[in-house]
TrEMBL record, chain A:
Protein name: Na+/H+ antiporter subunit E
Organism: Mycoplana rhizolycopersici
Pfam families: MNHE
Cited InterPro entries: Cation_antiport_E
Localization annotation: Cell membrane
PANTHER family, alphabetized: NA(+)/H(+) ANTIPORTER SUBUNIT E1, NA(+)_H(+) ANTIPORTER SUBUNIT E1
Keywords: Cell membrane, Membrane, Transmembrane, Transmembrane helix
Keyword Plastid tagged: no
Topology with respect to the bilayer: Multi-pass membrane protein
Residues annotated as transmembrane: 12-32, 37-56
Claim: rRNA-binding is one of the keywords in the record: no
Automatic annotation (TrEMBL), chain B:
Protein name: Monovalent cation/H(+) antiporter subunit G
Cross-referenced InterPro entries: PhaG_MnhG_YufB (IPR005133)
Record NCBIfam families: CPA3_mnhG_phaG, PRK12674.1-2
Cross-referenced PANTHER family: ANTIPORTER SUBUNIT MNHG2-RELATED (PTHR34703)
Keywords from the UniProt entry: Membrane, Transmembrane, Transmembrane helix
Membrane-crossing segments per the record: 6-28, 65-87
Any single Pfam family the record assigns to this protein: PhaG_MnhG_YufB
Record keyword Membrane present: yes
Length: 177, 112
């Protein structure tokens, strides 16, 4: 991050990239868990959130890719919507497989490609894939994901990528890059 | 209003219980460890999430509901990671896919 480095030289001190977002997230979680606005609790929350956010943003680059703008917020909400629809579909499918008299599945491990670059975006994509219709991430290798598919419909890498990762990548790409 | 809330809570509890049962039956009926992880990760997550939301609604306090909802979020964040690790460990240990399996790109990769 050359710009942050320049700022550091000019002003002496600058917050690490992604610090504000992570701090806000941690502090909100703290408020939810305590559900109280008493001064000691607020003060403890501020100190704990600052310490954790400082450690995680200076020691790892994972949080640097999260950008907080209205546009990313909109795409994150859209992604959440897509995710819940897929989650319901996944469970109805599961219901059909498991309660049917004869289990009719064609399992297999297929390789798919992903376009996401940032580690946290890939984490979100892998987690989403695991919770959606009949797919479970087995391994990551460069740009490829190995996915265990409960009902293999195609072994072609491009078609499979579109079917498994397609619904999420559009929104996740805008949020995490 | 009270009876409506009670009805919603009851429906959430029963549906959540049904999904937990689905996960359990799935683990018994499906053929190998990978397909079983599908049942455990998906149906298990949804079952426990629905019951947590029901508990939060029943309390009638926003604070309790917020905590229950945070529990749901953490479930969604962590359950897939656990399922992924179990499946990956099984594959590395050489556990085969069930006989009906169509393809295994990961084994082909290991061979090359």
């Amino acid at each position: 991050m050359p710009s942050a480095e320049e700022k550091r030289q000019r002003t002496g001190l600058v917050l690490p990239t992604g610090f504000a977002g992570l701090w806000l997230l941690l502090f909100c979680l703290w408020l939810i868990f305590n559900s109280s606005l008493a001064l000691p609790i607020l003060a403890t929350g501020v100190v704990a959130a600052t310490a954790l956010a400082w450690i995680f943003t200076t020691r790892s680059t994972v949080w640097h890719y999260v950008r907080l703008t209205p546009r990313t917020l909109y795409h994150f909400l859209a992604y959440t919507g897509v995710f819940f629809v897929e989650l319901v579909k996944a469970n109805v499918n599961m219901l059909r497989y498991v309660y049917s008299p004869r289990i009719d599945i064609r399992p297999g491990i297929v390789k798919i490609r992903m376009r996401l670059r940032s580690p946290i975006g890939r984490l979100a994509l892998a987690n989403s894939i695991a919770l959606t219709p009949g797919s479970l991430v087995m391994d990551v290798e460069d740009d490829a994901l190995y996915v265990h598919w409960l009902d293999v419909r195609t072994t072609d890498i491009d078609e499979a990528s579109e079917m498994i990762a397609g619904p999420f990548e559009k929104h996740l790409g805008r949020v995490f890059g | 209003m009270d009876i409506l809330l009670a009805l919603v809570v009851a429906v959430l509890l029963v549906v959540g219980g049904l999904f937990a049962l689905l996960a359990a039956i799935g683990i018994v009926r499906l053929p190998d460890v990978y397909t079983r992880m599908h049942a455990a990760s998906k149906a298990g997550t949804v079952g426990s999430s629905l019951m947590l939301v029901a508990a939060g609604l029943h309390s009638g306090e926003f604070a309790t509901f917020a905590r229950a909802f945070a529990g749901v979020v953490f479930f969604i964040l962590t359950a897939p990671v656990a399922a992924h690790l179990v499946a990956k460990a099984a594959h590395q240990a050489g556990y085969r896919l069930s006989r009906g399996a169509v393809c295994d790109d990961m084994r082909d990769k290991a061979k090359n």
